[in-house]
Design goal:
6 helices, Alpha-Beta Plaits, three-stranded antiparallel β-sheet, alpha+beta, two-stranded antiparallel ribbon
Length: 223
């Protein structure tokens, strides 16, 4: 098999050893060439200037588009019809102000569901941690004292600052033990407080404003 036959690619396969195919036909020439031979960047791509100008073009388009919308709204306002006129982009002064138009299916803060006795519903099967593309869920399993329940999570931590809120953990769970609520107020002052442990995920406390700061719980988390 001859690699690097595409003139648009630079052959970097020399010195590499291909893995053995698990089955006949697993690797094709096109796949191998694409994997080992990244596309050669042009001069314009290497200096990044076209990409920078493209980003500035998009920013300017949005900015001037909003300015035109506000100019049109002003013509309605001076005639006393500003209340019903469409507006441009607005600034929300968070956390004093919050958006009223969050979707009801917004994926936000995680919670762990509980059994009737208050124990976590989780059976420590690692399905959510395996499905997580951000690798932000960490579980340590232990043997449950109830013989009808094989395992339970001794440790269940979520690094919320790494989470991408894809919902894969919620979909993968076989016992509906983890859910994503529509609570989007997840900010905090310290990075270590962005790791939610099992006790916190079971607290189900609503978010509230305290001293002009949104805390992910009913009170600031302090050691």
């Amino acid at each position: 098999m001859k690699l690097g036959t595409n003139d648009g690619f630079e052959n970097l396969a020399k010195g590499h050893v291909l893995p053995d195919a698990a089955y006949e036909g697993e690797f094709t020439e096109g796949e191998i060439v694409k994997y080992y031979n990244p596309e050669r960047l042009s001069f314009a791509e290497r200096i990044y200037l076209p990409a920078v100008l493209g980003g500035l073009t998009i920013t300017a388009k949005v900015f001037f588009g909003n300015m035109l919308k506000w100019a049109a709204w002003f013509t309605y306002w001076i005639r006393g019809k500003g209340k019903d006129a469409p507006k441009g982009a607005t600034t929300i002064y968070y956390p004093e102000e919050t958006r009223p138009d969050y979707s009801p299916i917004t994926r936000g803060k995680h919670i762990l569901t509980m059994r009737e006795n208050g124990d976590p519903q989780c059976v420590a099967c690692y399905m959510c941690a395996t499905a997580c593309p951000a690798f932000c869920i960490h579980i340590v399993a232990g043997e449950h004292p109830d013989p009808a329940i094989e395992k339970y999570p001794v440790v269940f931590d979520i690094e919320i600052d790494k989470c991408i809120f894809c919902g894969y953990c919620e979909e993968a769970c076989p016992v509906d033990a983890i859910r994503l609520t529509n609570d989007v107020h997840l900010v905090d002052y310290r990075r270590e407080d962005m790791t939610y442990n099992k006790e916190y995920l079971l607290s189900w406390n609503p978010t509230k404003v305290e001293h002009e700061h949104i805390y992910p719980g009913d009170q600031p988390r302090r050691d």
